[in-house]
Every structure is written in structure tokens, then in C-alpha cells.
Amino acid sequence: MRYGFWMPVFGGWLRNVPDERMEASWDYVKRLTQRAEQTGYDITLIAELNLNDIKGVEQPALDAWSTAAALAAVTERLELMVAVRPNFHQPALFAKAAANIDRISNGRLSLNVVSSWWADEAKQYGLQFDQHDDRYARTTEWLQVVNGLWDEDRLSFEGQFYRTENAICSPKPAHHPTIYAGGESEAAKTMIANLCDAYVMHGDPPAAIAPKIVDMKARRAASGGTPMTFGMAAYAIVRDSEAEAKRELERITTVTELPAGYANFDQWLSGTQLERELKIQEYAVSNRGLRPNLVGTPEQLKERIAEYEAAGLDLLLLQMSPQAEEMDRFAAQVMGTA
């Protein structure tokens, strides 16, 4: 199993806990990322939203791509998986900038391609917001342009959304960045099986994850592509006793009133086609992070992680709080690397 962590670009991951002692600042994410390299983490996921989805839109949120470029220069080993939303980035210009960041990192950049869900954010910034299946049609073209510029000397492309004419991207990336993507609709799965390298999922128990992996492997084989890798989001709580872990779980999931970001969550829910019903109490932790039940003693977490490995999962993308302290604990007691 490879272990990754979500970069706390929103100043935390808990919607019911206002202050998690992990500010949205360059100083915090730089120290956290450098420490993560030392303690054995493999990858970080840097989410891209211009508005703060976790703490409320009035709160600070770090820009994903300038943060990634800065981290590329001050780290040595960690894979930098940076989220990118096609309707926010003209693909030819993006391909040029991302290639440069990959060069700065010596080939450690990867993409997490996200077909945007937040209509209010797009409206605030004066950007196009497509309906569900149109988003994946746009993303398909966007990936064709980006991949084409990275792979070909010159690219001419004409589609519904994008056009290039004998375009050049030089220098190329140091390597072709791995392209991750997630989604549970038919449109999303078709696009990912044909154009991406890895499938990332919201958190779910192993019994729900296993058939998704089987399905995507079959789709990938039918497309003639190379084997995919599979990742999942999860929130982790590790303590010396199960009772301690459960007390922490109760603390972070207790809802006394709807926090500032609830309207964003409600909008996201209405714009997705998720296969499993989301419960309001899960609002406390994003990306269905509590469903994997990585809550308990080190031994319990190791057993549950082994079940995911048996199901075919390759990568865990973890959220924790407060992140620096909890990541150290997880690395020492579960990963055995700190």
C-alpha cells in the first residue's frame, strides 16, 4: 500500500471543528510536506478550489498550483498530485505551466483531474459551468489537448470546446505525469477508463470498493490501455485503545448547528451522481472519509488496510486532524516508517 495525505489547503478537514491548529498558510504546508517526506509518505493530494469548501467561503484557501510549484522546489521525493479543473484552465497554456512544474520537481508531478461541481464558484469567477455529462465531454477534450502537447512535437486540434493550431509545448515534462481521476457516473467511468492512468474513489468499505475496482479493470482492458492503479480517500484516527479512538470520532462528528460551509456541501450533493446515499452526519468529514472505518488501534487499522489491499487498492489518500501530529502518529504506529 502507498500512503498519501491531503494537503490542508483549507486550514483543516473538519467542518464541525472551527480551529484545527493547522492554518491555511505556506509556512504550515511547507513544514508538513517536508516532514511527510521524512516520515515515509509517498504522495500528497493538493485540492483545487478558489473558495474554502470546508470552513466556509469567507475563510482562506490556498491556491493549488502556485503551492505545488513552490513545494516542487523544496521537496525531493514526494509525488505531488495536484487537482485541476478543466473549466478553470485553458489546456494548451496549462500543459506548458505543468510541464515546467514537473521539471522543477524532477518528474514528481501528477494530476487529479476533477470535473467541476461548484456552480457558485464558477459564477463568481466568470467561468463556464457545464451540466453533468457536458463536464466530462469538456474534460475529454481538455485531456486530449494536454496529452497531445506533452506527447507530440506540434498539435493541431479542433473540438467543441478547445482548438489549437500547430501548437508547441517545449520543454516537455521530465516524465508524462500520471493522470488520476474519480467519478461514479457512466460518463465519468467511460472517460477515465479511456484517458486516465488511475482511478480514485471516495471512501467506502472494502466490500463496496472491490466491485468498483473489478469494473474499472474490465473497462480499462476493453479500451486496450495499460493496467490502472486505484486509490481511495479516507479519514484516519489511530489511538492506543479503541475507546480513545471512538471518543475522538464522537468529538469530530457531533453537530450542534450547521457550519458555514453546509450550503456548499448541499450544492455539491445536488450536482453529482453518487451511487451511495450520503448521510448528513457524514458532512463532518469530506469525501466519505469515515466510511472506511480507519478508526481504532494500530492493529485494527492494519487489519482493515490489509482488506483493502486484498480488494485491489493501491493507494490511501488520508485526511487527519490536527494533521502534523496525527500524520506522525499514523506513520509510526501503522506505517512503521517514522
Structure characteristics:
11 helices, alpha/beta, 338 residues, 42% helix, two-stranded antiparallel ribbon, 11 strands, globular
Characterize this entry briefly:
This protein is an alpha/beta fold and 338 residues long. It contains eleven helices and eleven strands.
What does it look like?
- Helix 3 links the parallel strand 3 and strand 4.
- The two termini are 16 Å apart.
- The protein is globular.
- It is of the alpha/beta class and 338 residues long.
- The protein is 42% helix and 16% strand.
- The protein contains eleven helices and eleven strands.
- It has an eight-stranded parallel barrel, surrounded by six helices. A two-stranded antiparallel sheet has the order 5-6.
Tally of strands: 11
Number of helices, where a helix is a run of at least 4 consecutive DSSP H or I residues: 11
The strand line-up of the biggest sheet is 1-2-3-4-7-8-9-11
- Assembly level: single chain
Element order, helices and strands? EHEHEHEHHEEEHEHEHHEHEH
Proportion of β residues? Answer: 15-25%
Helix content: 40-55%
Return the average pLDDT rounded to an integer. Answer: 91
Kindly, what is the distance between the CA atoms of the first and last residues, rounded to a whole number of angstroms? 16 Å
Radius of gyration: 19 Å
Q: Using the alpha-carbon principal axes, give the shape.
A: globular
Secondary-structure-derived class: alpha/beta
The largest sheet is: 8 strands, parallel, barrel
What are the low-pLDDT stretches, counting only 5+ consecutive residues below 50?
none
